[in-house]
């Protein structure tokens, strides 16, 4: 089958295996079919040699977390993430992946009304103990949320879908920090309800394209767009590639992770007493491997936290991976166990994570997590 993969990109892989230690699914299984090299070999076999798409082959593709830890480790520069996204898009078009029930489950993400209703239902179900803990949802989804109010038009703050419904307090903290640095903030709210990152992971790339186009039409040009979710920021920075237009490329060029944007504006923030705590930094994959701006988290936290510590696992994935922890709970759990061991060795009071999926998944295992913006906000208001 023609997976519609770019032949040059596919042939860039020289099968050296240097990416294997950085692949979480290979680390926990030791199985070549669960490694980047093995998955690329299968893509080639299917596209170039007409190998059949057996259940095992599809399982190899489905079990990839799409953490992209293999990309920075690859000396040949294989664009693995784009290869996997295209593979999934083709398999979805052939109805070999992402069944209808799952496609329907993604629908509320782009509809704030539906998502709000669903979140209220989940919140009430949690109060009555009807939601199984294995789903890995936040301990208590809020029933009501405080309003987000614009304070100026220096920057947009992208608020998104699930994060806005479940973790709006992070947006509020981020907005206060950016305002404290001297900038007016417009939360995007219903202007841009979803970036399409989760849909792209599932191979529903046409939906991501529609959401990208809607967002580009909705947000005024020339204003930087700050993102406090690593996964959303990575997706929005990729709109140029996804849509292949000059306008999309220009849009992506004004998307910044919120820590990345703040890092060279720290002189605008007041000097305060640092928080008396030891904080371990968990780098979300889409901040470290995809956006590669994770050092900014250290820069912005350093003046506000008594002690910052690094994890010793070379930035391996935590297993959250968008909806991965729900769709592949066993593998995700094994991957998370490695992260938990690394956190235990660091003995922190708190773990700072700049991605809602990671923080929710780690919190479900009992880890005290917090967004970097919440830490700075706490230091500024203590
Ligand atoms: S994206 Fe992550 S899980 Fe997938 S092959 Fe690369 S390192 Fe492994
Ligand atoms: S993806 Fe890169 S690092 Fe991995 S086997 Fe291929 S060439 Fe080597």
Write the layout of secondary structure elements.
Blueprint: H1 7-11, H2 24-29, H3 36-49, H4 55-62, H5 70-73, H6 80-93, H7 100-106, H8 112-127, E1 155-158, H9 162-166, H10 168-180, E2 185-187, H11 197-201, H12 205-218, E3 225-227, H13 230-237, H14 239-243, H15 246-253, E4 255-257, H16 258-262, E5 275-282, H17 285-291, H18 295-301, E6 305-310, H19 324-327, H20 329-346, E7 350-353, H21 356-363, E8 369-370, H22 372-381
Parallel strand pairs: 1-2, 1-3, 3-4, 5-6, 5-7, 7-8
Helix pairs in contact: 10-22, 13-17
The structure holds iron/sulfur cluster (2 copies).
One iron/sulfur cluster is lined by residues 22-25, 36, 39, 64-70, 80.
Notes on the protein architecture:
It is built from 22 helices and eight strands. It has helices spanning 7-11, 24-29, 36-49, 55-62, 70-73, 80-93, 100-106, 112-127, 162-166, 168-180, 197-201, 205-218, 230-237, 239-243, 246-253, 258-262, 285-291, 295-301, 324-327, 329-346, 356-363, 372-381, and strands at 155-158, 185-187, 225-227, 255-257, 275-282, 305-310, 350-353, 369-370. The strands form two sheets. It has a four-stranded parallel beta sheet with strand order 2-1-3-4. A four-stranded parallel beta sheet has the order 6-5-7-8, with helices on both faces. β7, α21 and β8 form a beta-alpha-beta unit. α13 (230-237) runs parallel beside α17 (285-291). It starts with 6 loop residues before the first helix and ends with a helix. The mean pLDDT is 94. The protein binds iron/sulfur cluster (2 copies).
């Amino acid at each position: 089958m023609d997976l519609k993969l770019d032949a040059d990109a596919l042939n860039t892989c020289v099968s050296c295996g240097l990416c294997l230690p950085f692949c979480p699914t290979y680390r926990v299984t030791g199985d070549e079919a669960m490694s980047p090299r093995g998955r690329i070999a299968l893509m080639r076999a299917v596209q170039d040699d007409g190998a059949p798409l057996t259940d095992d082959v599809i399982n190899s593709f489905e079990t990839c977390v799409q953490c992209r830890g293999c990309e920075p480790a690859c000396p040949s520069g294989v664009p693995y993430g784009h290869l996997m996204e295209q593979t999934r898009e083709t398999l979805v078009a052939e109805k070999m992946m992402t069944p209808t029930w799952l496609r329907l489950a993604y629908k509320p993400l782009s509809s704030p009304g539906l998502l709000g209703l669903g979140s209220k239902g989940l919140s009430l179900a949690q109060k009555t103990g009807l939601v199984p803990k294995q789903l890995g949802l936040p301990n208590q989804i809020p029933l009501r949320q405080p309003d987000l109010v614009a304070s100026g038009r220096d920057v947009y703050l992208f608020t998104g879908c699930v994060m806005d419904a479940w973790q709006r307090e992070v947006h509020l903290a981020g907005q206060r920090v950016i305002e404290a640095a001297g900038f007016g903030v417009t939360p995007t709210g219903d202007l841009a309800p979803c970036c399409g990152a989760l849909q792209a992971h599932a191979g529903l790339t046409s939906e991501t394209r529609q959401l990208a186009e809607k967002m580009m039409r909705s947000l005024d040009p020339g204003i930087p767009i700050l993102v406090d979710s690593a996964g959303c920021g990575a997706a929005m920075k990729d709109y140029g590639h996804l849509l292949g237009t000059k306008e999309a490329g220009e849009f992506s060029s004004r998307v910044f992770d919120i820590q990345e944007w703040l890092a060279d504006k720290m002189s605008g923030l007041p000097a305060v007493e640092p928080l008396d705590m030891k904080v371990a930094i968990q780098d979300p994959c889409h901040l470290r491997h995809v956006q590669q701006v994770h050092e900014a988290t250290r820069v912005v936290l350093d003046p506000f936290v008594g002690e910052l510590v690094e994890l010793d696992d070379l930035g391996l994935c935590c297993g959250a991976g968008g909806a991965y922890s729900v769709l592949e709970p066993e593998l995700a759990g094994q991957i998370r166990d490695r992260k938990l061991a690394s956190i235990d060795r660091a003995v922190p009071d708190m773990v700072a994570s700049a991605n809602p999926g990671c923080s929710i998944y780690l919190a479900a295992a009992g880890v005290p997590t917090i967004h970097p913006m919440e830490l700075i906000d706490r230091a500024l208001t203590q």
